Amino acid sequence: MKIVVLGGGESGCGAAYLAKKEGLEVFLSDKGAIKDHYKQFLTENDIEFEEENHDEERILNADWIVKSPGIPKKAEMINKIHEKGIRLSSEIEFASEFTDAKIIAITGSNGKTTTTSLIYYILKNDGLNVGLGGNIGYSFAKQVADENHEYYVLEVSSFQLDDIQNFRPYISLLLNLSKDHLDQYNYNYEEYALAKFRIAENQENDNFFIYNKDDEMSKNILEKFEIKAKMIPFSTNERLSEGGFVEEDKIVVKLKEEFSMKVDELSLLGNHNVANSLAASIAGKILEINNESIRNSLMTFQAVEHRLELVTEIEGVKYINDSKATNVNATYYALESMKNPTVWIVGGLDKGNDYTEIEDLVKRKVKAIVCLGIDNQKIIDFFKNKKEFIYSTSSMKDAVEISKSLAKSGDTVLLSPCCASFDLFKSYEDRGRQFKEQVLKN
């Protein structure tokens, strides 16, 4: 069987390595430049590759093509692959066919990384043999090739789910839905939502689907989408006879035996993290992890870098790095959890953002807006009659300096950009690290 891998990053190199280890003929192609350490990895493992080029004839002669999630689904090469009817898979799909491990897969518009990391931490803390992968950590495929884990906890994006045929997690989890990446889904919210629901499409009645009963779009999709897996809901708004919910000052999970703990004992802050903790607890109970172990994990888990990460406190001002908030809904959660007057750093590469969703929160919680991007006009135009203090910057240094001058003791400076990072930064991680560096400079 001839395998072609498109993309020479973490997932692509991992998929090529797994193919090689399984004795398959493999060729990796990247239209851009491949980073030196990945080139060294491919060379050391005798994997043939090309960069800054696509050998179309060779690619279209493959039996199975593995596509990195960063390649747009509307790319010309992808269209040609579909026209030829060649099987096209994500790394997640490809790797899952070479392991019998139980897979716990998490998707949603917001909170994926936090919840995936939390579930992994719960399992690891309980002594289970577990790997962490997908959109987070090391390549899932490389772990399948080298490590014999009994469980994998995977963060899965809609782009990865677009390219599945047989992917069947033991537990699938859909946290929430909000308008994101609509440029890749014909600006159709339901099309994007249906891509997320593909996480459950191959599941059978011996599998589990955890979902958010409070989420409006999920409710709408569930009315027309048949789920064969056992469905377990969670809610922060209503008491449930089965699933996870909030009762007075406690989170409660009713599943075989009951689990509960006080909300103020959770290590993660904010209402959205109560929902994430409920979802993670349900996964823990399905896997028969005992209550004390789950409670201990929920109390000791450390927040994910770049997601509502407290950087430091300087002269009574808290600095919070929420660089991973690349859409309006993610920033909604961040602003909602702010308790003090906030200097808000926002901006970047706009993905069709509608700021009306956060308009009221900005009015109530934000004392000044500091825009950070090559083009800040859309944000300025939206908020100019709603906020007196709006500043435009095009470097992290300037954004942090202005924010420091505006913030007084008792205030918070929040980087929660609402936008992608690629106008000024290599990635949201790069943006977050630069924020932390500038904050910590004297």
Give an account of the 3D structure.
- With 442 residues, the chain is an alpha/beta fold.
- The protein folds into 3 domains: 2-85, NAD(P)-binding Rossmann-like Domain (Rossmann fold, 3-Layer(aba) Sandwich), CATH 3.40.50.720; 94-300, UDP-N-acetylmuramoyl-L-alanine:D-glutamate ligase (3-Layer(aba) Sandwich); 309-440, Mur ligase, C-terminal domain (Protein-Tyrosine Phosphatase, Chain A, Alpha-Beta Complex), CATH 3.90.190.
- It is 36% helix and 23% strand.
- The chain is built from 17 helices and 20 strands.
- The protein has a 9-stranded mixed sheet with strand order 7-8-6-9-10-11-12-13-14. The chain has a 6-stranded mixed sheet with strand order 15-16-20-17-18-19, sandwiched between helices.
- α1 (10-21) runs parallel beside α7 (140-146) and α13 (328-336) packs parallel to α14 (356-365).
- Its EC number is 6.3.2.9.
- It catalyses: UDP-N-acetyl-alpha-D-muramoyl-L-alanine + D-glutamate + ATP = UDP-N-acetyl-alpha-D-muramoyl-L-alanyl-D-glutamate + ADP + phosphate + H(+).
- One of its GO terms (biological process) is peptidoglycan biosynthetic process.
- Belongs to the MurCDEF family.
- Its main location: cytoplasm.
User: Alpha-carbon distance between the termini?
Assistant: 58 Å
User: For the report, how would you describe the main beta sheet?
Assistant: 9 strands, mixed
Which class of secondary structure composition applies to the elements?
alpha/beta
Shape: globular
Please tell me the total number of domains: 3
Helix-residue proportion: 25-40%
Strand numbers in spatial order across the main sheet: 7-8-6-9-10-11-12-13-14
Q: What's the architecture of the largest domain, going by CATH? A: 3-Layer(aba) Sandwich
Counting DSSP E segments of at least 2 residues, the number of strands comes to 20
Q: From the alpha carbons, calculate the radius of gyration and give it in angstroms.
A: 22 Å
β content, as a range? 15-25%
Average residue-wise pLDDT = 93
CATH superfamily of the largest domain: Mur-like, catalytic domain
Instruction: Specify the CATH class of the largest domain.
Output: Alpha Beta
Contiguous low-pLDDT stretches (5 residues minimum) are none
Secondary structure tally, helices:
17
Could you name the CATH topology of the largest domain? UDP-N-acetylmuramoyl-L-alanine:D-glutamate ligase
